[in-house]
Every structure is written in structure tokens, then in C-alpha cells.
Fold this protein.
Amino acid sequence: MTALDVVFALFASTAAAGALLAVTSRHVVHAALWLVLALGSLAGVYLVLAAEVVALVQVLVYVGAVVVLVLFALMLTRAPIGVRADLDAAPGRRRVAAVAGLATSALIGGTLLAAIGSTAEVPAGDGTASALGSATFTGWVLPFELLSVLLLAALVAAIAISRGRDADTPGLDDLAPGGTADRADPGAGSAAPAPAAAPAPATPAAPSRAVGPDGTS
């Protein structure tokens, strides 16, 4: 066993442990951080396999974009991130998920075991940056752009959900003709009548004085 095999085994075991902890963690933020560990370890596996471009894309796209987008979505939507009993899956769903995970692992593991001892050689030029760039921006340019639009739409939707609607601010349906705003205020748009002037306070009358016959009071 060479040094590269040891490094590969370390990265692979770390990626598997991070993926398992990301699935079993009951805290959403902790699960996202474990996912960062799993994806970063997978980038190390690509480096050992001499796929530097794929490792760089793994770090930039998945670790630096997707996981950060998940964290921003959690913060912007103010979603509950703690442990909540009402959000736990039923035991039946957990069993189905465990069976599906084991079946997928068996399928991938069987494929890898079948590939051991194969003498097929991969052409040296297929893993270079020029070949991957040409394939990405020619035949795969449409899925690449659709994925970027999907991520942008998810971010915009998270911002819209986080803002919500103010109770005092009418929406588009309320502002439409015949909407809630028109029904609530039939006289909207017309000039409001001027308030009536308040009556002036009465001036108290001076007390009268009796006048005698000689003209003195």
C-alpha cells in the first residue's frame, strides 16, 4: 500500500463519516456543517485521483455555493433550526430511507468491486481543464445555465418569503379594481369632506348693576 492509498482511505473515510453525520444530525445547521466536511473530503479524494479541476469545482460550487445557499435560506426564511418533535419523520419513513440508503450503497459498492482489477485505461486528455471546459460550455452549457437560474430563483424566493406581507400594506389583489381595498373604502380616490368648524366659545356676560334714582350705582 502506497502513501496515496493511505491518503485516499483517510479522505474517503472522512467523507463517509461526514455524510453519515449530516443525515443523522437533528440540527439543521449542524447537518449543513457536516455536509461541508463530507464535500471537502470528497474534493480531497478527487485530488488524490489527479482530477484537480473536478476538485476545484467541488470546492467552489458545492462547498462555497450550495452549502452557503442552504445556510442563507435558513437565515432569511427564519425557519426553525432546532430540534422539533413535530418535524421528525415517522418510523416507517425512517425504515424506508434506511433500506434505500443501504440499497444505493450496495449498488455503488458492487460497481466498485466489479471494477477492481480492470485493465481499461482512461485517455490522458479527458481529465484536463481544456477538455472539461469545452464539454461544459458546448454540449452542457444549457444545463449549466439552468442550474444557475435555479439557484438564483431559490435565493430570491427565500428573500420574498422572509419579508412576508405587512398587515397594513395591501397586496396586488387588494389594489386591483373591486379588490379588498375598494370594498373596504368605497370613497377611496375622492376628496375627503372638510371637517366642520368648531363653534366659538360664548363670551360670559358682564354682571348688571342696579342704578339708583340719583344716578349712582
The two ends are 134 Å apart (CA to CA). The mean pLDDT is 75. Residues 142 and 196 are 69 Å apart (CA to CA). Helices lie at 3-24, 28-48, 52-77, 91-115, 129-136, 141-163, 172-175, 180-184.
